Amino acid sequence: MKQKKDITIYDIAQKLEISSATVSRGLQDHPAINKNTRKKIQDAAKELGYRHNTFASSLRKQKTNTIGVIVHELNSNFITSVLAGIEKVTTEAGYDIIIAHSSESSTKEAANALNLFHKRVDGLIASLAFDTKSLEHFQHFEEKGIPVIFFDRVEEKGESTKVIIDNYKCGYQATQHLIEQGCKRIVLVTANLKRNVYAQRYKGYADALFDNNISLNKNLVLIKDLSEQCGVEAAKEILQMKPLPDGAFITNDFSAAICMQTLKDYGIRIPEDIAIVGFNNDAISKIVEPQLSTIHYPGIDMGEIAARNLISHLKGMSNIKHTQTIVVRSELIVRKSSLKK
């Protein structure tokens, strides 16, 4: 079947017997064009099937009104809420977003970054994969003056702008809470300690133990991928420990819920035998029995703050290079899973 040619502003101008410049301004709702004429132009455009050539317009303006977003996964309540926050702010500001995900691979992350660079995004918001060791693949953006903001999973030593929570404080609070419930053998289930979020949570855990004169036992630190399978594996490793741990801080709610359910299947009582604290305040934390104590930090706020700062920079209202680190609020929410007392 023969493909129909694209309708241009010249076709609309010919149909209405007006100039192409008038059509162009009418399609942009320019106040200099009479309201009735604007309506005629827009009706004719719809009737003929006119599509605005965003790409050509972008090349002329050297601007695409598009923000790139790179996330490390998509099947996470936290990431979904961050994206909702980004989308809310970008839509209000008249920007589109292009989302790419690395599936926890630095190689895929680098390919995503290059692809978004070639798509000429005006700015980039990114959260790093487990195995990302350097920010080299973001260098193209720096060289072209394209602003980049990192969130949650960031390179702490890098000079780029970051939106994070105080992961050290959260790790300390969760562990301190378990200690106050009488726990002395506390398991930490976390992920790759090369990534800032998990390294800082681990440091908070270790310091809380030290401050309470409890020795750090490396055998109680389980490094996992925080998946569904991780929850099952962690539970089985905990069951093999002698004596049985009396507390667990699991730095992901979904993994914590699966771990808790597996322990219950083996006759372990929560919190009487093992008190448990998760992380993220995902919906699952309120559904499991008993309800899961957790660290709450709103992903939607993180997304909104990252997007707002980026767009403010793009509009020349601020300079993100003057703001190295933005810390989003977080808090410990205590529920039945950790209340021994």
Describe this structure in words.
- By secondary structure, the protein is α/β, with parallel strands linked by helices.
- It folds into three domains: 9-52, lambda repressor-like DNA-binding domains (434 Repressor (Amino-terminal Domain), Orthogonal Bundle), CATH 1.10.260.40; 64-163 and 299-327, Rossmann fold (3-Layer(aba) Sandwich), CATH 3.40.50.2300; 167-297 and 332-338, Response regulator (Rossmann fold), CATH 3.40.50.2300.
- Helix content is 43%, strand content 15%.
- It is built from 13 helices and twelve strands.
- It has helices at residues 9-16, 20-27, 35-48, 54-61, 77-92, 106-118, 139-143, 167-180, 196-211, 228-240, 253-265, 284-287, 299-314; strands at 66-71, 96-101, 123-126, 148-151, 161-165, 186-190, 221-223, 247-250, 275-277, 294-296, 325-328, 331-333.
- A six-stranded parallel beta sheet has the order 2-1-3-4-5-11.
- Helix 1 crosses helix 3 (35-48), helix 2 (20-27) crosses helix 3 (35-48) and helix 8 runs parallel beside helix 9 (196-211).
- It is elongated and about 90 Å long.
- The termini are far apart.
- The model has no long low-confidence stretch (mean pLDDT 89).
